[in-house]
Amino acid sequence: MKREKYAFSTRAIQAGETVDTVTRALNTPIYQTSTFAFESAQEKESAVDEGLNWTPDTYFYSRTANPTTAALEKKLASLEGAEDAIVTASGMSACATALLSLLDAGDHLIASTDLFTITKTLLDDVFKAKGIEVTRIDTNDLAEVTEHIQANTKVIFVESLSNPFMNIADLSSLSKLAHEKGLYFVVDNTFLSPYLLRPLEFGADLVIHSATKYMAGHGDALAGVVAGDKKLIDQVRYYADNLGAPISPFNSWLILRGLRTLHLRMRMHSQNGQAVAEFLQSRPEVEFVLYPGLESYSQRDVARKFFRDENGGMISLRLHGGARAMEEFVANLELSAIAVSLGDVHSLVYPMPKRDNLIRLSIGCEDTDDLLSDFEQALDKISSK
Ligand SMILES: Cc1ncc(COP(=O)(O)O)c(C=O)c1O
After folding, report:
1. Is the CB of 293 under 6 A from ligand 1?
2. Residue 114 CA, ligand 1 centroid: distance in Å
3. What's the CA-to-centroid distance between 98 and ligand 1, angstroms?
4. pLDDT, tens only, 262-293
5. pTM value?
6. How far apart are CA 64 and CA 70, in angstroms?
7. Each residue's pLDDT tens digit, 251-265
8. Is residue 89 within 6 Å of ligand 1 at its C-beta?
């Protein structure tokens, strides 16, 4: 399948997958095997070269490469508009191996202030302990970023839409600056998915995802993705193999299945997200709502520059009435489970008392009116009003 020729939805369903040559199975089988048999000692020698000279399409051991995972990687490369992609066991292993492939001890990384909590731990604790310098700043302040670039700076790292404060990164300005200074620009695009935004089109060198989220879509598998030029992805593969970060073939198969409906789900997440954000904003109990589809969203122009007029399912908000109002609200919700994670067809709510009572909603694909009624009754029942 020539990826340039077909629209996103066609590629989500068909790219990367071919009819099985042995059985004619239409769907990619789960190659649930750790190892692959060689026909001869000579074949083993040329394929493996004692483990030092592997190529991704030579199957000999599933830590290094697996056909189910390879189909998924091809589909993802097509959806991201990338030359190549690698899939790993989780979003964190994708993030860690991608950044470690670019940074050595003594190098310096500039990253945003607002990031997923464990990414912050990775950078601020793990990387620093291993001798990688990290500066975390407001990466949309280009003057500040420029000021913090040092002789040993190698990478600028941002989330396209940040978790949980919903800041959109100005991708084209940051990639221009990074490349002028000879740095790599790496973007975690988990909150948006390639349906809404493809950071490589705006100059990113690598795009990362927690595929656990919108790509899997059903809250049933952990996975991570890194996509970009083959030369860079080969380096990430080396780190993923050495650090032992592979995904299981079964989880690759679940993500493959999830991706075939990504475009359908993202449209529904966006329709529901818009309706819920507008509804919440209209209510007196709500102090503020952060959602790129709202007129009140402070970076609306930046959002329109980078993605189409669909804004996904992630919303952050704060209620008047402090921790008590927040706790009552989340307890009153019938359709949103109190849970970590996001991007699931099932709506989720994540209250954050330690972050000034911010509430993160991951709006699912349930019926729009059912969701609105549920948020309405949950707000109506707050006793501290
Ligand atoms: C923006 C972002 N990046 C990375 C991750 C890590 O992904 P995983 O949980 O699949 O390791 C998460 C998880 O919530 C996330 O929200």
Report:
1. no
2. 13
3. 14
4. 999 999 999 999 999 999 999 999 999 999 99
5. 0.96
6. 10
7. 999 999 999 999 999
8. no
